[in-house]
Design brief:
Shape of chain B: flat
Helix content of chain A: 25-40%
Largest sheet of chain B: 2 strands, antiparallel
Distance between the termini of chain A: 59 Å
Number of strands of chain A: 21
Structural class of chain A: alpha+beta
Strand order of the largest sheet of chain B: 1-2
Radius of gyration of chain B: 25 Å
Number of strands of chain B: 2
Strand order of the largest sheet of chain A: 7-8-9-1-10-19-11
Order of helices and strands of chain B: HHHEEHHHHHHHHH
Strand content of chain B: under 5%
Helix content of chain B: 55-70%
Largest interface: A-B, 80 and 80 residues
Radius of gyration of chain A: 28 Å
Number of helices of chain A: 17
Structural class of chain B: mainly alpha
Largest sheet of chain A: 7 strands, mixed
Strand content of chain A: 15-25%
Oligomer: heterodimer
Number of helices of chain B: 12
């Protein structure tokens, strides 16, 4: 009996010690915030009553900090080396470019005095020379003037062999030289008229020559420059303060920026997807990034945040195989392809599986304003018409097994995607829809690497499919150019293993339009070309849109003024305010 | 003894070389690191070709391994793509302490890892201490009070704990202690990170943010280890010398703590010894879920990007730690148990 008591007691003591340790830490957290509010105490009335506010809401005590959760951590901040979207979207805080883009995809001048055009003489009549005037009232955050020489230096660094930059597009392809006739004038010379200059040229700004030239000269490369991960000198509404790998990144307000921000700092926290959701629901984060459709309801019902969709050029779509050697014979008939579209209730998919947050697109450019052809409507759900087309094409169920066939070949289509759970669900639903009109489906999922693999014998380059489903946008969004996916010269094959046209669709008429738009520098004429391009892809049923795939964000209810855009989501960060 | 240690270390060299070779070959099946260098889509062909060349990935695998091992400062490499090697290499190779640069961020791998190690050790060592204390207390008490209510309860709970996947424990505890507690107006724990951005990195904040990850990390191990301690205690408690000690009239807790526990600890020490080298590698799942900036998370992130210089460095670091700690465990045995001799 005595030893019973002894052990029980020691356990209790131990447990209470641990509880005390935890308990001791909890008040520490609730007491600490008032101390942290000392700088804004003078300006913020909320800070005058920290004792009560802090006790209940420790996360929201500092009215000046916008917390953003990032489910993926940038690997670098230098835009030359940035290979991730997470890295490039941050430049809007600390490294403004010549212009950014608003929610409608329209350019908003930042470092440039105005957006060049043929009308204002910024773009020469032959489209070969682009002249950009820089503002004379902006400086780098260390006070040094920002000049045209910084842009020339940036171009040189993109092209230097010693720098392992992520991409030389479009400099390698279109630009012959970048010049600085005077401090406020940047002149870009093109080898051919380049329609995509607006989004391609210095899309992520310039890098400071006065900081990085000495590094390049002494180390021979910018690859390992400290500035890449700690860019203390930038130009924008915020200034980089610190970045602790896998933990957080801080940008502080830059009062000298032309549009001084209204919040004091941006705190970016690196978290796991699941933890991000908890943080959003708990009101611990102001902006949630890269969310999923399934999270919409919970977020909107939490009373802490709102789910926001913003088109960013992406559309989930079906890429149909046109390679005669590998594809099912039925798919070579345009009426069968049309029947497939008519037999799929895409409206139902977006309602039931995507929570009605989006809708089916008619063309690949519906999420890339203003290039989506407004005259086109998605093919409707019309199973009767689908059946009629299939009957007419000679695909009938002659052996009574429930699946149509012709000349002894069953109408069973290989329908592939990567292994994302949402796509698996969609495919299962589509399989049922198709079964009602007698189309069989063989569903296959692949790991991302293999599904996207271009040279590794992946299912797409080798044509082992009829329909491949994935989400894509024009590479230079908001520029509409996506030619590599449809040009005849890009058709993948043994002689062209790196080609971008995996479907093998080749149409001389389309080719001509695609080549024409690439050099068409008149925005209106280019838009009309895209209407025609979309019409061909629509009539020939080359690409079937399943849903517009916007960026999915959440914004906490205390954060106001956020207007995401597809290309530069944080473009208006200087207008953000926090209310209590 | 010195001879024995030297012999073991000499044996470790070919062992580690072989491990590195096997790992390096396995890395080749990881997928193409270039593919993850596209901003949102894979890079265009011209960039792919240039990146392969600049990163040395166009070289045959044996050449890549050689460069990884001994560096390339003795040869010239082709950076401009004209087919002529013109630029002197700069890498020193692993044997001279240069683990290369990350393919993704281009930063020195050693820097990337050393940034994370203190955070990982803080979390893992704390968790290990919690695990040891609780397994011992629970295990010993269950053994002494065999088939009591407490013992049965702990047995039931261990089975629940042991069969729960760690991500479930992590997420459940996060939902309960952070989200629900906050809703119910109770004192709640933070969800993610190492500290609250508004407060800053104070020891109190870090401790507070450690509670949930440490809890998640320990639950499964405590469930398993306490069973281990319990059974080895039971075995010892049934031995004759314990009965003798009791017959001599020794106090009960003296018998249990000094006579039984010390002997029962030997297998437990082995178990813990096996854990130690892996503390460096961090906790992959827990660190990811709780946003803890450790090496485990680095490993996960870089696996997705096939950043094999980083992966190789973490794996080799673990391999070296395993070799070293195995040697230390063997040496420790000879001290703990005089019957074991090292020649």
């Amino acid at each position: 009996m005595k030893r019973n008591l002894y052990y029980l007691l020691s356990l209790v003591v131990l447990a209470s010690m641990i509880l005390a340790a935890c308990g001791g830490a909890t008040p520490a957290a609730t007491e600490a915030p008032p101390a942290a509010t000392e700088p804004p105490a003078a300006t913020e009335p909320a800070a005058t009553e920290p004792a009560t506010a802090a006790a209940t809401e420790p996360a929201a005590t500092n009215p000046g900090t916008v917390i953003i959760t990032f489910p993926q951590e940038p690997t670098t901040l230098n835009p030359l080396y940035a290979e991730q979207w997470f890295s490039t979207i941050l430049t809007q805080f600390w490294l403004k470019g010549l212009w950014s883009f608003d929610p409608d995809g329209q350019p908003v001048p930042e470092l440039a005095t105005e957006v060049p055009s043929k009308e204002n003489g910024g773009l020469s009549e032959d489209g070969l020379t682009l002249t950009i005037k820089l503002r004379d009232d902006v400086t780098w955050s260390d006070g040094e003037p920002i000049t045209a020489n910084d842009f020339v230096f940036t171009y040189d660094m993109y092209m230097a062999d010693a720098n392992i930059v992520s991409s030389r597009y479009p400099y390698e392809d279109y630009v012959t030289s970048v010049e600085a006739p005077d401090d406020q004038t940047v002149v870009v010379n093109f080898s051919a008229p380049f329609a995509g200059w607006l989004t391609g040229i210095f899309a992520y700004g310039a890098i400071p020559e006065h900081v990085l030239r000495p590094v390049f000269d002494s180390e021979g490369t910018l690859d390992t420059a400290e500035w890449n991960i700690a860019p203390t000198v930038g130009v924008g509404p915020f200034v980089f303060k610190e970045w602790e790998s896998a933990s957080h990144m801080i940008f502080e307000a830059n009062p000298n920026w032309i549009n001084p921000p209204k919040v004091e700092q941006i705190f970016i926290r690196m978290v796991d997807d699941a933890a991000q959701e908890v943080a959003i629901l708990a009101g611990d984060t102001d902006i949630g990034v890269y969310l999923d459709y399934s999270q919409a309801e919970a977020i909107n019902n939490s009373g802490k945040a709102t789910f926001v969709v913003q088109p960013a050029g992406y559309d989930e779509g079906w890429y149909l195989n046109f390679n005669a050697e590998t594809v099912h014979p039925a798919l070579q008939d345009v009426n069968v392809r049309k029947a497939i579209a008519l037999a799929t209730d895409r409206e139902k998919i977006t309602q039931d599986l995507l929570g009605g947050q989006t809708e089916p697109p008619a063309t690949f450019w519906d999420s890339t304003p203003p290039f989506g052809n407004p005259d086109l409507e998605p093919y409707p759900y019309d199973p009767e018409e689908a059946q009629r087309l299939l009957d007419e094409a000679g695909w009938v169920d002659s052996n009574g097994d429930g699946t149509r066939d012709k000349d002894g070949v069953e109408l069973v289509l290989r329908y592939i995607s990567n292994d994302r759970a949402l796509r698996k669900d969609v495919k299962a639903v589509v399989q049922q829809m198709w079964a009602q009109v007698g189309i069989g489906a063989e569903l296959k999922e692949y790991g991302d690497d293999f599904f996207n693999g271009y040279a590794d014998g992946g299912p797409q380059p080798t044509g082992q499919y009829e329909i491949a489903e994935y989400s894509d946008n024009p590479d230079g969004f908001p520029d509409p150019d996506e030619s590599a996916t449809w040009l005849c010269s890009e058709v993948v094959g043994e002689d062209n293993p790196e080609g971008g046209n995996w479907q093998g669709y080749c149409n001389p008429e389309l080719d001509e339009l695609l080549n024409q738009q690439a050099t068409e520098t008149d925005p209106e004429a280019r838009k009309q070309l895209y209407y025609q391009i979309a019409q061909i892809l629509y009539d020939d049923v080359v690409w079937i849109g399943i849903w517009k795939d916007p960026d999915l964000w959440s914004v906490s209810n205390r954060l106001q003024g956020v207007r995401f855009s597809g290309a530069t989501p944080f473009w208006n960060a200087h207008e953000w305010t926090i209310s209590e | 003894m010195v001879n024995y240690i030297l012999r073991r270390l000499a044996q470790a060299i070919p062992q580690l070389l072989l491990i590195s070779l096997i790992l390096f070959l396995l890395m080749q099946t990881f997928g193409d690191p270039i593919a993850s260098l596209g901003r949102r889509t894979p890079p265009r062909p011209a960039d792919r070709e240039r990146l392969r060349r600049q990163l040395g990935l166009d070289q045959p695998v044996y050449m890549q391994y050689l460069v990884w091992l001994v560096g390339n400062d003795w040869m010239k490499i082709d950076m401009d793509g004209d087919g002529v090697a013109e630029t002197p290499g700069k890498r020193l190779g692993v044997l001279r302490g240069d683990f290369g640069n990350s393919l993704i961020s281009k930063r020195p791998v050693l820097k990337l890892i050393t940034e994370r190690i203190p955070n990982t050790l803080l979390l893992m060592v704390t968790a290990e201490i919690v695990i040891i204390i609780f397994s011992l207390v629970i295990g010993v008490y269950s053994a002494v009070e065999q088939y009591s209510f407490f013992d049965n309860l702990v047995t039931a709970l261990s089975f629940v704990g042991y069969s729960m996947p760690i991500f479930l424990i992590a997420l459940l505890s996060m939902y309960l202690f952070s989200l629900n507690f906050k809703e119910w107006g109770l004192p709640y724990l933070p969800t993610v990170g190492m500290f609250d951005p508004e407060v800053g990195r104070t020891p109190g904040q870090v401790a507070l943010h450690m509670i949930l990850p440490v809890f998640s990390l320990s639950v499964i191990s405590i469930a398993g280890y306490s069973r281990y301690v319990r059974s080895s205690m039971l075995e010892i408690l049934g031995l004759d010398y314990i009965r003798t000690a009791r017959a001599k009239g020794l106090r009960d807790n003296l018998v249990v703590m000094r006579h039984a526990l010390r002997n029962a600890l030997l297998p437990f020490v082995t178990l813990v010894g096996l854990d130690i080298p892996f503390l460096l590698a961090g906790a992959v799942v827990t660190e990811s879920i709780f946003g803890w900036p450790g090496t485990g998370r680095l490993f996960v992130e870089r696996t997705a990007q096939s950043d094999f210089p980083v992966l190789m460095a973490i794996l080799m670091m673990t391999a070296v730690a395993v070799v070293v700690f195995q040697l230390l465990t063997d040496i420790a045995y000879s001290y703990l148990d005089p019957r074991i001799r090292i020649e």
